[in-house]
Amino acid sequence: MTKNIFISMKSTQNSMDGEVIQHAGPFKGQYYFKDGFHYCLYEELMEGVEHPVKSRLKFNDEKVFLHKSGDIAFDTVFEVGTDYISNYNTMFGPICIKTITKQLSVNDTSDMINISLHYDSVMADNYSTDTNMQICIKNA
Q1: Count of CB atoms within 10 A of residue 126's CB?
Q2: What is the pTM of this model?
Q3: pLDDT of 69-102, one tens digit each?
Q4: What is d(CA 106, CA 114) in angstroms, rounded to the nearest whole number?
């Protein structure tokens, strides 16, 4: 991988309200590898949010850490067999979400990295979504 990258995401969420498919990106970013972890730094323009949200993706074959800061801020971890509770700070106020990772895979080649995640998100102990997310990182 080169330092300059494009990162894009696609997620399919199934909930009580039906299926929602979301696309984000591609975003320009920076990539580096340090101490056994891949890092991607990028900014996202999100609908309904005035300023870009700064994002950091840190991952290896076993864990994915996602950190966002700005008008929307949170830290979450995706790791099979581990439930992780995150406090999301949004423009509507704080939201507590539990993430239960069911599947995680990382496919790393010389010019592209694909991350596949399958997880449940539970809010207020009763509303949940089943999400499949694909993250694609390519050389710019």
Answers
A1: 7
A2: 0.89
A3: 988 889 999 999 999 999 888 777 888 899 999 9
A4: 6
The whole-angstrom separation of Cα 82 and Cα 53 is 26
Contacts of 129 (CB under 8 A, 6+ apart): 13, 14, 15, 120, 121
Q: What is the dihedral of CA 110, 112, 117, 121, to 10 degrees?
A: 130
Q: Which amino acid is at 116?
A: S
Residue owning tokens 């990162």: 7
Structure tokens at 31: 């990539």
Task: List the structure tokens of 94.
Answer: 């704080």
Q: Which helix (H) or strand (E) holds 73?
A: none
Return the amino acid letter for 92. Answer: F
Q: Could you tell me the CA-to-CA distances from 91 to 9, 50, 62, 71, 74 in Å, in that order?
A: 22, 10, 32, 7, 12
Which runs of consecutive H residues, i.e. helices, occur in 3-115?
Answer: none
